[in-house]
Design goal:
It is a single chain. With 195 residues, this protein is α/β, with parallel strands linked by helices. The protein folds into two domains: 1-101, Formyl transferase, N-terminal domain (Rossmann fold); 108-195, Rossmann fold (3-Layer(aba) Sandwich). It has six helices and eight strands; from the N terminus they run E-H-E-H-E-H-E-H-E-H-E-E-H-E. Strands 3-2-1-4-5-6-7-8 form an eight-stranded mixed β-sheet, sandwiched between helices. Strand 4 (83-86), helix 4 and strand 5 (105-109) form a beta-alpha-beta unit. Helix 1 packs parallel to helix 6 (163-186). Bound molecules: 5-O-phosphono-beta-D-ribofuranosylamine.
Length: 195
C-alpha cells in the first residue's frame, strides 16, 4: 500500500478529493496532511478524516527556506510517504528539497502547462485570445511548474467569464483529474490522463 502525504496552504478542496478517492482497492492511503499555514481550513478537514494534520508556519523562518523545509522534512520522515501531493500548496520549494523527493512528488497547477506557469493563471488566460483553459498534474522538478506532465483536463473559456467563473470551472476539473492521476501514479502507471 503506497503512503501519501498531501501538502496544502488553504481550503484543501483538492486534498479532500484525493483523500476520498483513496479507499477500497486503491493502491494508496493518505498518511499525513501538512500546511505552511497553521490556520489552513484544510487541516481540520483532514483531521475529520482521522488523518494526522500538522501546520508548520513558514513565517517565523523568514527568508530561510531551508530551515522551513527542514521542519517539513521532520514530519515527512516520520510519516514515511512514498508519494507527496502538493495540492494548493503556495510555497516555492528549493531544489534541494525537490531533489530528495523527485520522482515521488506531484503538483496540480491551474493552467494547461506549459502555458501560464506561476500565478494568476485564470486572469492571464482571460486576457489572452485563448478559447480554452484547464489544469495540469505534473511531477515536481526544481523548475517551477515544469516537470513531466501526467494529466490534463480542459474547460472552455466562455465570452462573459469572470476570473471567478473560470477558476470555479477549472477547480471542478482539478477535483476529477488529481485523483485519477494519483491512482495511476500509485500503481506505477505514468500513462497520460486527458480529461
Ligand atoms: C485552487 O485555486 C487550485 O486551482 C490550486 O490551488 C487553489 C486552492 O486549492 N491548485 P485547494 O482548494 O486548497 O485544493
Amino acid at each position: 500500500m503506497k503512503r501519501v502525504a498531501i501538502l496544502i496552504s488553504g481550503s484543501g478542496s483538492n486534498m479532500v478529493k484525493l483523500v476520498e478517492s483513496m479507499t477500497g482497492d486503491h493502491p494508496a492511503r493518505p498518511v499525513l496532511v501538512l500546511s505552511n499555514d497553521p490556520d489552513a481550513a484544510g487541516l481540520d478537514k483532514a483531521r475529520s478524516f482521522g488523518i494526522p494534520a500538522v501546520g508548520v508556519d513558514h513565517r517565523p523562518f523568514g527568508k530561510d527556506r531551508a530551515a522551513f523545509e527542514k521542519a517539513l522534512q521532520d514530519h515527512l520522515l516520520e510519516a514515511k510517504p512514498d508519494i507527496i501531493c502538493l495540492a494548493g500548496f503556495m510555497r516555492i520549494l528549493t531544489a534541494d528539497f525537490v531533489r530528495q523527493w523527485q520522482g515521488r512528488m506531484l503538483n496540480i497547477h491551474p493552467s494547461l502547462l506549459p502555458k501560464y506557469r506561476g500565478l494568476n493563471t485564470h486572469a492571464r488566460a482571460l486576457a489572452s485570445a485563448d478559447t480554452e483553459h484547464g489544469c495540469t498534474v505534473h511531477e515536481v522538478t526544481a523548475e517551477l511548474d515544469d516537470g513531466p506532465i501526467l494529466g490534463q483536463a480542459r474547460v472552455p473559456i466562455l465570452p462573459n467569464d469572470t476570473e471567478q467563473d473560470l477558476a470555479a470551472r477549472v477547480l471542478v476539473q482539478e477535483h476529477r483529474l488529481y485523483p485519477t492521476v494519483l491512482r495511476r501514479f500509485s500503481a506505477q502507471d505514468r500513462t497520460l490522463v486527458l480529461l
